[in-house]
């Protein structure tokens, strides 16, 4: 996940689509044409030496100058194309972010200012393309001048040889003029196709940079469990997203199988980081995290995540039907399993009330559903997979009281017999937890049950009193 945290989505989209297209152009428009033109060039040069080696050498006098010009062109055009691909990525990133966040742009009336930003980015893209056009506008006239120079030298040398009665015929002179045209035509074509080739090379460098990234979570564990008990233990865990900026600083706690643990604290205290580490979305710098006494690093990664399910505050749904969003192309889950599960947790009637029922298309990111409705679908998705460890990240926040009743009922069914870790800002929803951890600046400030923490007269009691008075 660290790679995706640090890499803009638009950049990855550009490399996955646009850069791949430039690579395909190498084979469809560039490589085979280049091979054909090179064969023409070789045949023409061989014919020149076969006809008259002296005239051939005169014709090739301009070639060293052409090679120098080509080297200059190659160096500069590659730099220009790198800038072009970079600016294409910047445009895609900007557009992706602003289309996704279009409601925010309109809420704050920022259309004009954001459009000005786009114009600047687009201007940079234009300038990068103009640079590439400039180098072509210099290179092609140089090729034409060198072609004319070769013809002039041939006419000068060949005409003098014919007048002097040397072994040069008028037919050979005319043939060499044609040869020169035939030699420089492939060179011009090669220069034109060089555009496609260079764009493809630059695109391939960007694609291979993604393919060759070493930013992976190591998956060298060999422990595979069909079932786990669900006892979780953190011991002196230290973790940072960036060097020495500790998000968790020596966290230690444990939760027994089938129990409920609640994590509370202000924003930035490390609650979400704790659950991300359990799934090994990130690796810790020191300490240990174990499940049933086995270090999570020793589990096979897909086996570890099979036993853990996360219900997030912001539920992501794909632009397809409810049924497809629940099954997620898992061949082990049938439509009948989905129907039975939705009835068990009490959301079947809600789904059937939608047009088309389980075939209802939820739209991109589930935009046609409310926050609570998306949460209900995510609960069903989790319940079907029967995890031994359930993680709820603000799963019941920002919803109306009626939907919350349905959610709480579904949640109670889902969490039965499972180890449950809850992140909550509303302390009233976690008073029945077996253990509550109050986090502050990456450390456990207070620990205990709801009643135990109230007796401490500490930070937790102040937070609970404040929220309780606000709710009343």
Please give a structural write-up.
- With 472 residues, this protein is an alpha/beta fold.
- The chain folds into two domains: 210 residues, Up-down Bundle (ABC transporter transmembrane region fold); 240 residues, Rossmann fold, CATH 3.40.50.300.
- Helices cover 59% and strands 12% of the residues.
- The chain is built from 16 helices and ten strands.
- The strands form two sheets. A six-stranded mixed sheet has the order 6-7-8-3-9-10, sandwiched between helices.
- Helix 14 links the parallel strand 7 and strand 8.
- Helix 6 runs antiparallel to helix 7 and helix 13 packs parallel to helix 14.
- The longest helix has 54 residues.
- The chain is elongated, with a radius of gyration of 34 Å.
- The mean pLDDT is 83.
What are the key terms here?
472 residues; alpha/beta; ABC transporter transmembrane region fold; six-stranded mixed β-sheet; four-stranded antiparallel β-sheet; 10 strands; elongated
**In total, how many beta strands?**
10
- In total, the number of domains comes to 2
- Total helical segments: 16
Helix content: 55-70%
Give me the strand/helix succession: HHHHHHHEEEHEEHEHHHHEHEEEHH
The fold-level CATH name of the largest domain is Rossmann fold
Ends apart, CA distance between termini: 41 Å
CATH superfamily of the largest domain: P-loop containing nucleotide triphosphate hydrolases
Strand residue content: 5-15%
Query: What is the residue-averaged pLDDT?
Result: 83
Secondary structure category: alpha/beta
The strand line-up of the biggest sheet is: 6-7-8-3-9-10
């Amino acid at each position: 996940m660290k790679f995706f945290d640090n890499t803009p989505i638009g950049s990855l989209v550009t490399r996955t689509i646009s850069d791949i297209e430039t690579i395909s152009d190498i084979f469809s428009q560039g490589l085979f044409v280049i091979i054909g033109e090179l064969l023409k060039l070789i045949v023409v040069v061989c014919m020149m030496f076969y006809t008259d080696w002296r005239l051939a050498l005169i014709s090739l006098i301009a070639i060293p100058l052409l090679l120098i010009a080509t080297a200059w062109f190659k160096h500069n055009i590659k730099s220009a194309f790198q800038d072009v691909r970079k600016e294409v990525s910047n445009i895609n990133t900007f557009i992706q972010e602003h289309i996704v966040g279009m409601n925010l742009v309109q809420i704050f009336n920022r259309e004009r200012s954001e459009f000005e930003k786009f114009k600047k980015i687009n201007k940079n893209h234009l300038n990068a393309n103009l640079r590439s056009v400039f180098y072509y506008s210099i290179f092609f006239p140089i090729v034409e001048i060198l072609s004319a120079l070769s013809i002039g030298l041939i006419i000068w040398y060949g005409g003098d040889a014919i007048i002097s009665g040397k072994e040069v015929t008028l037919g050979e002179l005319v043939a060499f003029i044609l040869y020169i045209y035939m030699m420089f035509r492939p060179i011009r074509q090669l220069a034109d196709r060089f555009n496609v080739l260079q764009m493809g090379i630059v695109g391939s460098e960007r694609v291979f940079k993604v393919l060759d990234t070493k930013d992976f979570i190591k998956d060298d564990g060999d422990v595979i469990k069909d079932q786990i008990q669900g006892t979780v233990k953190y011991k002196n865990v230290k973790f940072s997203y960036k060097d020495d900026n500790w998000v968790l600083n020596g966290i230690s706690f444990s939760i027994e199988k089938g129990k409920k643990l609640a994590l509370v604290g202000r924003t930035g205290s490390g609650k979400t980081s704790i659950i991300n580490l359990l799934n090994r979305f990130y690796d810790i710098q020191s300490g240990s995290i174990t499940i049933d006494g086995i270090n999570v690093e020793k589990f096979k990664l897909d086996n570890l995540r099979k036993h853990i399910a996360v219900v997030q505050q912001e539920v992501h749904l794909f632009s397809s039907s409810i049924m497809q969003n629940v099954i997620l192309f898992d061949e082990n889950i049938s439509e009948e399993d989905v129907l039975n599960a939705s009835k068990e947790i009490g959301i079947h009637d809600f789904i059937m009330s939608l047009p088309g029922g389980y075939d209802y298309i939820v739209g991109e990111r589930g935009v046609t559903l409310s926050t609570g409705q998306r949460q209900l679908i995510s609960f069903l998705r989790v319940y079907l997979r029967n995890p031994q460890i359930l993680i709820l990240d603000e799963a019941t926040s920002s919803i109306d009281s009626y939907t919350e009743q349905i959610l709480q009922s579904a949640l109670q069914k889902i969490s039965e017999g499972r180890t449950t870790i809850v992140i909550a800002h509303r302390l009233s929803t976690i008073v029945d937890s077996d253990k509550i951890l109050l986090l502050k600046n990456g450390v456990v400030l207070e620990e205990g049950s709801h009643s135990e923490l109230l007796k401490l007269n500490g930070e937790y009691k102040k937070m609970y009193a404040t929220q309780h008075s606000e709710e009343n």
